[in-house]
Batch of 2 targets.
Target 1
Amino acid sequence: MHANAFPLQTCDPLADPAWDAKLAGFPDATVFHSAAWARVLQGAYGFRPVCFVHKDQSGRSSLLPVVEVNSWLTGRRGVSLPFADHCAPLCSDKEAFNRLLEAVIGLGKRRNWRYLEMRGGRSLFDEALPATSFYGHQLDLSTGAQALFGGFSDSVRRAIRKAEKSGVSIEFTRDIKSVRVFHELLCLTRKRHGVPPQPFSFFKQIHQHILAPGKGWVVIARHQGRPVAGAVFFHFGQAALYKFGASDETQQNLRANNLIMARSIEWHAQNNFTSFDFGRTSQHNEGLRNFKLGWGAKESQIEYVRIAPQNSEFLSAPDKDGGFSQRLFNHLPLPVSRLIGNLLYRHAA
């Protein structure tokens, strides 16, 4: 029987209690493919992922999740998946991917999407240029704590020692109070970077569906009892992801961010995690790129693809860093920046 004789199916990760168990068969699956992330998207913004599924003759499945974002500000479009650093199609081969893509493009035509954005999987397209490219960085934790520390740069080791000598303390928590502490630091950080912060309601959903069930950590650094830096990590299987980071700029001399990262890498290595993903980095942000490289991480490219359903044309979407809007947000009062984040963050999905 030809592979095309096997019909495509769609499924709802939120309606399948065995969804994450099924993902265990895909080595490239991430937390963004998981039911937990689907619950975050639905709870925070009403987005409900639909997963297109293809099975070949041998019974192997291929998956392509997508969410329709209907925004008065940014238009109607398909995204795989909103607010994910990378969420590549999970495909057994090129033929399976082509069938999945054909089905999703057909949906996009019927729904009049401006484009479909794939956050990963660019190699599955023949000659498509990426719409946007980011740096990715991953650390292999299987080498052991001693080898990991040996891979840290000299500047990273000095920063860790400075934080320790300064009396910075680190706490791993999953409670909502710590999430709120982190969000306060995040609002300061996002204002400094010239972008509105994610609303706290988004982080409440992250707490409910990822942190509280034990699928991640919020890590807070304190100095003399005062929170000075924080980070949020997600877990999926034996993979850890550094998703959010924040700090108090006035206390950066303490190097608390470095101690958070060192203790987090150490904890995940000691608890049998095999990989540590530093998330995506803008290709314009050399400072953040160098920070991640300083931990001995392997660098890669994360490439997004945009395709217009109506004519199958590939579109560009430059990675913008800086500019007038960021300078404007940088100077807005913090309450105004928060309000804008509450109103507009959904539209950036």
Target 2
Amino acid sequence: MSRYYIDWNQSAAEVSSFIRGLSPYPGAWTKLKQQEQEKQRQLKIFNVSVSETLAQANPGKIVVQDKQLFIGTETATLEIIELQLEGKKRMTSRELLNGIALDKSKVN
């Protein structure tokens, strides 16, 4: 994998620092696997924050709650604030969720 690839098995602080350090260029990324599609898509993540309201989720598990996007790490859950899906423009997670359903998706 690329040196810019996000390892969700690290702590929330390490993942957050990794993303912040690579934003905006070259950008930290991961692969998004939507259940209904075979193909994985690249997902760049530019801005996150540690969630204080959502319980711990398994590393790489996507949780969608109240039009907010969360991904689990080893120690806590991160709220994804700004991202870019392969072939799309940079946007907020709310804008992404208005366009596609991620309820049964995961990142790896």
